[in-house]
Amino acid sequence: MDIEQVPQDDENFYDGHKRAMYARTKDGQYVQALSKGWAVETYFTAEALDDLESAYLVVLKDVKDGKLSPLAAHMTRRQMTPKLLAQHTGFFTFQVKRHLNPRVFKKLSESTLQTYANCLNIPLNELSEVPK
Amino acid sequence: MNVENFKHLQSAHCESGVAASLLTHQGQKISEPMAFGLGSGLFFAHLPFMKIMGLPLTSFRSYPGTILKKVFQRTGIKLQKRQFKSEEKALKALDEMLEQGIPSGVQLSVFWLPYLPPQFRFQFNAHHAIICGKKVDEYIVSDPIGEEMVTCPKEDFKRAWFAKGPLAPKGALYNAVSVANGSKDRASAIKSALKETSNRMLRIPIPFFGVRGIRLLAKRMRRWPETLKTPRQVKLNLGQVVRMQEEIGTGGAGFRFLYAAFLEEAASEIPGSRLKEASNLMTQAGDSWRAFAVQCAKACKSDDFSKKTMNSLAETLEKAADLEEEAFKLIDQCILC
Fold it and tell me: Which residues of chain A neighbour B265 with C-beta distances below 8 Å?
């Protein structure tokens, strides 16, 4: 890549920051060049985020309909799966999956809820609420 | 507590950036591309049977952690790596290093780092950064991706340092241990690094790795519209490849430009070799990867996954594979002489 080809698509993608790339000057020497953002990259990252968001909305709807516990929504918001959440909390995966059931979730002890709240980095009282 | 005389170095890739910064602090003359090359960072792997969030794994780099290890081996400087079960012990060890004025490399999960923009915060555990100071409840972080040093609250840092899951950091702490006669012969170090990368790109006998891996991806990609159920799936699969290739931390084109920069520098360390030509070939391969990304975006935006489009995508990849093969065959000759 030549230095003129380093993309400067100002999309505010890096929140105003610039990232380092390597490109060649006119004499064919490699130097570090800073880029503001690239439309192609922005597009695919937006797609991936969009995919996460739509998966989250599906879960959120199930939580509101009472099919899943609020824990499912918080977990999905943190991009976690029951397996990953189990690794963080020290519970077994099947336990976490059970806790996604609203009836089981209601009966959970304070200390279990506190463990989830710590791992998901949210206050204890928000854990039992449906996130906005 | 701050490490004195520590210079922040903005880099394209986190691990080679950390390696270059730590070695520069040790008084070595080493650039980021050199660190990346000496660490044999370039690779390609496409593993259709290993899924990450439901999508096949495609990687453009060697296994996380190996770059750091190999750069230090090849420059003859000792690297101490520690991991911890207890968060308290880890924080204590880190503070001790800071008190002695030694910067520490750490492995972190990007998801919990508040100083990164939210669109980069995915569950990925193998980000690297350097801790070079501490305020009351904050650490001063030299994150090679950023333009400047940043601060990170202790609580968030602890979370990122002890995140669980695949590639869990387990409080990984890296320190360079001063050795008086650190510097080994640079030319022979470069040759051994080149040999390793070349072997991995050309001579792994199963088809998932190296240039054969790129060709496998091209072959499978041609059939994606039939093998995957929905156009949305094709889109996500293409997106995954492009994101692995371009997302922050590759320096563009899946590390190919970074490696081309290394080859150029290597050419000046080993006079009379044809590494400069190899660098040109690698640059062309990188340009093909960039063209592939542009084509992908075009196809995805218009939902055009016809045979013709998929064929031209695959052909661009095969072109990149051919160029990389040619480059590494040339490198093989350079090592021998």
Answer: 30
